[in-house]
Automatic annotation (TrEMBL):
It comes from Trifolium pratense. PANTHER family: LACHRYMATORY-FACTOR SYNTHASE, OS05G0202300 PROTEIN. SUPFAM superfamilies: Bet v1-like. This is Lachrymatory-factor synthase. Pfam families: Polyketide_cyc2. One of its GO terms (molecular function) is protein phosphatase inhibitor activity.
Amino acid sequence: MGEDESQPNWEGKVSIELPSITSQKVWQVLQDFCNLHKWIPIDTCYQLEGVQNQPGLIRYCASTIKSLDSDSEPTIKWAKEKLLKIDPIKRCLSYEIVDNNMGFKS
């Protein structure tokens, strides 16, 4: 049986209260779409194409995953992600995974 085409795409939202820092300071970090490696533990994140922090930009993010078996080589998990919208007034952005080796499907 084929995939169910009527299922909506996965959506998520993240929010947290940080009483010791302003939302403007947080947004300065988050609005840089190719800055992910500076605030989460991944190896790299960089721009592949498009205009920096504008819809249409595609970034490449990757991280090396060590094998549980010490004799096995580590693997690199990666994703290419496209910035769909960015709103500095509401301080939010939307993106989609356009390619990856982790099993995500858009």
